[in-house]
Design goal:
- The structure is a single chain.
- This protein has 568 residues and is mostly beta strands.
- It has a domain of 337 residues: Porin.
- The chain is 9% helix and 55% strand.
- It contains three helices and 26 strands.
- It has a 22-stranded antiparallel beta barrel.
- It is elongated and about 175 Å long.
- The N terminus is likely disordered.
């Protein structure tokens, strides 16, 4: 093993050797330079040097590399590469796992019953009965019958007798063929009303004097092939008719109508195109040998442009009117619908116009207390524009709102037609041009088939040109209601409505009379003993409020009706 002293001795020797070599090289270099000096001096000799001018020293410019940027003058030749990627299959493992079967609720076809009967009895001596009888499920035909009776002989303090009844019989049937569907319908109606709008204490009328009987027969037959998807041309053609009369003590009004209507539809440039056609004829015979004939012939072509979120229907309404004088009418018709957010928000708008026929049958169905002077006529909807939106706030909540403006020529209104305070009040019709603005909104909450609640409101600004007010038209209407089914056994239904202030032509000779606003609430409770048997109780006008829908014709206060229903 080497010691520390031995290592230090070796290091000193190396240092001394390096110093010796360095100084030796330095000495040789000095001797060489001395020898060259001597040789140069010897070679100079005694040369003569002639000086031309004084010595002027100069400093040459240094050639430096500029640091200023310059354009790149180098050229680059584009090199094109050609390459391919060869596909290679990746072997991935595929592992299967069993899927549980989906459980479908009520996958069995429900049992249908041929018949359903419902009946009961209520206050104000009110019997009620209704029957439905229908053929069972079939691919060849469908047929049925419907009967109804509802009457009352109650009394209202200080007014005349209010006896009234409603009776209806309906027969219907359908035949399904390889070419389409044949349908037919036949209706019989017989309704009796009493003019009780008079002072029952000071005036006595016989039943015949205040009785008004409305009766009629109506039918329809038609055929369509809309169920045949392979048909190039789709069509629907039908013929409907009715005979109707209103008979009073000493006078009678009769009306007959025939309507031929059809629809033709096909694809043009992969878009739906269709046209509705109708010929509507009516003949009304009024008291005092007054005869009114009214015919409207209309053709309504349409063409549809439909995209995933937008739909546009354009066309025209062409109508020819023949009554006292022949007139031709042409209206544009445009419908638009746009989905802003899939099924959450949709807006819609429409611009149109049309003729509206005011028949004796339609007007007496609205107001059964009319007298001899109910004049049929046509209302010209010269301009009808509307729009609105539907918002799906939740899968169970839907809100809708809309607005419309109508410019009407010869709009129809009801006005009082009483000649004195002791005579019962009846109503006649009056026509006037009008501008009508309507705003409406509705909120609906529905959860499956067990719960529903809704509220809706409508504001109407009806301004007739030739009348002091729009008779019997409320400015504000509110409707709310709903139902709830508890444990599949107990069903509660409610229906409530509010009608704002209305105006009637003055009975005492003033310009008009005010009819107060009213609120009516109704409740129905049904207990389902089984799927075939149930009992019910209807409570109408819970607030026991006496209100007037028509001038001098008050409503019943509290009404109760109890009964049962049976499916068989």
């Amino acid at each position: 093993m080497k010691t520390n002293s031995t290592i230090e001795s070796g290091m000193n020797t190396a240092i001394m050797l390096k110093k010796t070599i360095f100084f030796g090289a330095l000495g040789l270099a000095f001797l060489q330079s001395k020898a060259q000096t001597r040789d140069t001096i010897k070679n100079i000799g005694d040369e003569n040097i002639i000086v031309v001018k004084d010595y002027q020293p100069t400093l040459s410019d240094a050639v430096k590399i500029s640091d200023m940027p310059g354009a790149d003058t180098s050229s680059i030749k584009e090199v094109k590469f050609k390459y391919t990627i060869e596909g290679k299959r990746a072997d991935l493992p595929f592992n299967t796992s069993p899927i549980k079967p989906v459980k479908i609720k009520d996958d069995e076809i429900k049992l249908l019953h041929k018949g359903y009967v419902r009946g009961g009895y209520g206050t104000h001596n009110t019997p009620y009965a209704e029957l439905f009888f229908n053929a069972l499920r079939s691919k060849e035909f469908d047929a049925g019958i419907h009967l109804k009776h509802h009457s009352s002989t109650g009394k209202i303090k200080n007014y005349g007798k209010t006896d009234n009844s409603e009776n209806a019989l309906e027969l219907f049937g359908k035949k399904f063929t390889d070419y389409g569907t044949l349908r037919t319908k036949l209706n019989f109606d017989r309704d009796v009303y009493r003019f009780f709008g008079y002072d029952g204490k000071s005036t006595v009328y016989s039943k015949a004097e205040t009785r008004q009987l409305f009766s009629g027969i109506a039918g329809e037959v038609g055929f369509d092939n809309f169920s045949k998807q392979e048909s190039t041309y789709k069509f629907d053609a039908g013929l409907s008719f009715y005979g109707y009369s209103g008979k009073r003590d000493t006078s009678k009004t009769t009306e007959n109508s025939v309507i031929l209507a059809g629809k033709l539809q096909r694809k043009i440039a992969d878009r739906d195109a269709f046209a509705d056609i109708k010929i509507d004829y009516s003949r009304t015979k009024l008291p005092f040998d007054t005869l009114v004939k009214n015919t409207i012939v209309g053709v309504y072509p349409r063409y549809t442009l439909e995209f995933p979120e937008f739909r546009l229907i354009g066309g025209v309404n062409t109508e020819w009117e023949a009554n006292s004088a022949a007139k031709f009418h042409l209206y544009p018709h445009v419908e638009a619908r746009y989905k802003l957010a899939s099924d959450v928000l949709m807006i819609h708008a429409q611009v149109s116009g049309a003729m509206q026929k005011n028949t004796y049958k339609a007007m007496t169905a609205e107001n059964p207390f009319t007298g001899d002077f109910v004049m049929p006529g046509n209302t010209n909807k010269k301009f009808d524009v509307s729009g609105g939106l539907n918002i799906k706030l939740d899968k169970e909540i839907l809100f809708s709102a809309g607005a419309s403006f109508k410019r009407l020529k010869d709009a129809v209104y009801f006005e009082n037609d009483s000649t004195g305070a002791l005579n019962y009040t009846t109503f006649s019709t009056v026509y006037s041009d009008a501008d009508v603005i309507t705003l409406n909104g509705e909120l609906v909450f529905e959860r499956n088939e067990k719960f529903n609640a809704h509220i809706g409101a409508t504001y109407t600004n009806n301004k007739p040109d030739g009348l002091a007010k729009a008779w019997f038209v409320p400015a504000v209407e509110i409707n709310l209601g709903g139902y709830v089914l508890l444990r599949e056994k107990i069903l509660f239904k409610t229906d409530m409505f509010y009608r704002g202030e209305r105006f009637a032509a003055a009975y005492n000779g003033d310009s008009f009379q005010r009819l107060k606003p009213y609120f009516d609430a109704n409740l129905s409770v049904e207990y389902r003993y089984s799927k075939m048997v149930s009992v019910f109780l209807n409570i109408n006008n819970i607030g026991v409020v006496q209100y007037f829908k028509w001038y001098n014709y008050p409503s019943y206060r509290l009404q109760l009706l109890a009964g049962a229903s049976l499916s068989f």
